[in-house]
Amino acid sequence: MSRPRTPIAPRTPVVLALLTAALLASAVAGLALGPVRIAPGQVLDIVLGGPGQRTGAFASIVWDVRMPRVLLGAVVGAGLAVAGTVLQALVRNQLADPFLLGASSGASLGAVLVIVFGAGAGAAGALGVPAAAFAGSMGALVAVYAMARRGATMTTGRLILAGVAVQYILSALTSLVLVLAAHPDQIRSVLFWTLGGLGGARWDELALPAAALLVGTALLTALARPLDLLLAGEEGARTLGLDTGRFRAAVFVLTSLVIGVLVACSGAIGFVGLMVPHAARMVVGAGHRALLPVAALGGAVFLTLADLVARTAAAPEEIPVGVVTALAGGPFFLWMLRRSTRVEGVAG
Asked: How confident is the model over 141-152, as pLDDT tens digits?
């Protein structure tokens, strides 16, 4: 017995086109605005022109400083939004998020341990930090899932409490690492992982997160139908031929890998994976074939704009982008929690 594919809403191509335009506009704004302001027209000349346009102080600011940062923000935002969308399907809860479920905190702890106690530089560090971040992300997700599940059921309350508990434990361990760090540079690095930031973006570090985003999103989009089946519940999905246990485990591993690589490049940035999937679902529905690309573009736009606020709101000082997303996401999470509690109360 098979279930037909969830049809893509007619408005989806329009939404994708609008989000693409919004991403291009936000990228131009990110390249133009900062302590040194550059006219958007001049930015376009530098980016679209030939090598002759890429000389001088403005060209260096745009091409060497701001462009890697804007690209990393778009990649991380898209990846976190995709990961949040998939986690919400796996646990069948719209309050799920890489940050709230402890995945980002676990990835941060793994990365920080390598930075402080391991080989944080050179080829070993380049591979060790993402690997440790992946291990921490996977461990946190497994712990939260095991704590929240009771038999065949998982309630919103248990999921949130388990996520908060794991997050507190991981934050405490990261604070312990901060105390044990021997050098000021290591302390600054630990603070970077805990608050999230894109200031360290470099051209030579963009390939790995971009590859993780592209490959991970492609594989998860190919799994859109099984993700849709999970929305019918465990029994319904099994009836339609899905081995829910093996599928959920495989997707947990894939999602953790994407989160780990992204957090290894940006630190823990919260609430992107909570807000963006919910907004995308309101526009194009719950079918993952349309939802995942819309969420990816929405996440890219959101984090690009959030980083622009982080760089300009208190200039010349810079606010960690994780603080900006938390200020936006905290009230949104409380609204979602109140709405979810009201729905559960009515259903009960």
From this structure: 888 878 877 765
